[in-house]
Design a protein that fits this description.
single chain; globular; Oxidized Rhodanese, domain 1; 31% helix; two-stranded parallel ribbon; 144 residues
């Protein structure tokens, strides 16, 4: 789904956000600033079949960037320029986001997602963290 007014790409819109940290998750957002690839993979896997996710994953790249790659599973796309307005007004796809929700931001390399975390934390979203590896790290095959 594409929201023209905000320039958003939304996938997996049937998922609802959980209100704060869920004890069933192996990842505790409290006091954290970053998440690594393995932790994110585990979190996505743990929440795969849940209607109410323990987190919201936001890709802050521009829609045209996402069109050439893809989104990390369960992610929604909200460009960095729209983050403050989307969080402040709980605009789609964040219709019911609250300050105690667990939010993970990522982009292509990690710079814009770090800026999004800063914006969210200044707005009171204390459980906002960065996936600094971002899409490049996610798309890279793991070495075994």
């Amino acid at each position: 789904m594409f929201h023209r007014s905000l320039g958003l790409i939304v996938k997996n819109t049937s998922s609802k956000l959980n209100r704060g940290y869920c004890s069933s998750s192996s990842f505790d957002f409290t006091g954290k600033t970053v998440i690594n690839k393995k932790q994110l993979q585990n979190l996505i896997q743990e929440n795969k079949d849940k209607k109410v996710k323990d987190y919201v994953l936001i890709d802050v790249r521009e829609p045209h960037e996402v069109e050439f790659t893809s989104l990390i599973p369960s992610a929604v796309n909200i460009p960095l320029n729209n983050i403050q307005e989307s969080l402040h007004h709980s605009l789609p796809p964040l219709n019911q986001i609250h300050e105690d929700d667990n939010i993970i931001f990522y982009c292509l390399k990690g710079g814009r997602s770090a800026a999004a975390v800063d914006i969210a934390k200044r707005m009171g979203f204390k459980n906002s963290i960065n996936y600094p590896g971002s899409y490049i790290d996610w798309a890279t095959e793991d070495e075994n």
